[in-house]
Amino acid sequence: MTTATEPTVLLPQREREGADEPALSVRVRGLHRSFGNREVLQGIDLSIRPGEFVALLGRSGSGKSTLLRILAGLDKGASGSAAVPSRRAVVFQDPRLLPWASVLDNIVLGQRGKAAGERGRQALSEVGLAGHEQDWPKTLSGGEAQRAALARGLVREPQLLLLDEPFGALDALTRIKMHALVQQLVSKHQPAVLLVTHDVDEAVVLADRVLVLTDGVISLDVPVDLPSPRLRGDARFVALRSRLLRGLGVDEEAEGAHETVAARTA
Fold first, then answer.
1. What distance in Å separates the CA atoms of residue 19 and residue 120, rounded to the nearest whole number?
2. What's the pLDDT score for residue 50?
3. How far apart are CA 102 and CA 157, in angstroms?
4. Does 99 score more than 50 pLDDT?
5. Cis omega (within 30 of 0) on the bond before 12?
6. Phi/psi of residue 115, nearest 5 degrees
7. Alpha helices in the chain (DSSP H)
8. What is the Cα–Cα distance from 264 to 76, expressed in whole angstroms?
């Protein structure tokens, strides 16, 4: 186990790059994080280019959300260095809308002035919620609430968008619609994106690159060289999905055999 003796240093990207280094939105080096005697992150190195969409897979407890929270500046207990943009936003699985504030007030939370209101209305329009500005959060469906959470992130014009399983609580059809919306928004605004997810298909559909986190280290780093739209029935999609599942320790043949036996004995 490595003991964290120095805090993580969060620096603006420009202070970390030399003249001969490629432009990066995120540069992480030697990142460690422990909770008691358990080391969750064991020397993570990670780079994300401006506009690049990176998905992070891993089993529960592998440290995915811990890494995201460190990059968001929400976890100060790590050691190592992380150069990140000053403008960054986080969207969680729970939309975390204030129930006593209107949808628009939730979107522009912490911002003031007429310009903030105009940006909020524009963001709501981009996520398909024009006309809901004065609604209360409790009147929104699950998908609408998550659209509002996306709008709240985008209104800050982030250079780094951090997505912590934002679609995990949505039904399958709503999730597909949200995937298409995120693709449109990322294409328009061009932030660097780090998506934490358990869903392998989701990672392949959305990302330019997929990472697998295993026992606190990045065990797999795979570019997604598939044309759009990415169809789940495409042989290349299936092959990449299988490779990532193997990286996660999932034996598809064994799982399939188990499901077949279970179905026959049900």
1. 37
2. 95
3. 21
4. yes
5. no
6. -65, -40
7. 13-16, 64-72, 103-107, 114-126, 142-154, 172-189, 200-206, 235-247, 252-265
8. 51
Q: What CA–CA distance (Å, rounded) separates 210 from 55? A: 5
| Lookup: tokens for 65 | 């959300």
Structure tokens, 111: 């911002």
* CA 64 – CA 75 distance, rounded (Å): 13
Distance CA 141, CA 150 (A): 14
Q: Which residue has the tokens 């036996």?
A: 261
Q: Quick one: pLDDT band at residue 149, thresholds 50, 70, 90?
A: very high
3-state DSSP assignment of residue 38? strand
**Residue whose tokens read 């939370």:** 109
**Helix or strand or coil: residue 191?**
coil
Question: Residues 6 or more apart from 183 whose CB is under 8 A from it?
Answer: 206
What's the CA gap between 25 and 37, in Å, rounded? Answer: 32
Q: Note the pTM of the prediction, 2 decimals.
A: 0.87
